[in-house]
Amino acid sequence: MTFETFFSYSDPEEAFLDQNLAKLGDCLVNLIYSLARSVARETPDGAKAPNRVLSESLNKAGLRDLAPSRSDRHDLGDVAEAIIAYAWLQGKIDIEEAAEILSESFHGVNFDNRKKIFNAAEKGFENLLKTIAERISFEKEKISRNKAGD
Known about the structure:
Elements: H1 12-16, H2 19-41, H3 51-60, H4 73-89, H5 95-104, H6 114-135, H7 140-149
Helix pairs in contact: 2-4, 2-5, 3-4, 3-6, 4-6, 5-6
């Protein structure tokens, strides 16, 4: 089942800037992050995905141009969360697959080392965002024009 009938956007880029969608994405991202950590650790683990991780992942996935030019780390994290929520609502990715993609980056990570956890999470979210980008049609020309106009 998809929820796309409840959420109408003129294009994906509009959705990615929706603060309410970002709030939904925040909850969804934290669930995915917790599931991925749980799989990797082989024990239940609840955690919040840091904005630093999400903003860096957005940059590394090549999707920074989807956010306004003067966005701070928090704003970039919101865009990443909105992208993930949008993809889920559109049926482009499910929670289990997203957690699997993210958990792959955690294999062999020492969970006592915060820096290694963050680095692995950045890589995992980068891979997740790239997977989503392959499944959602962005207007790349529009993004390029917006960037050139900055």
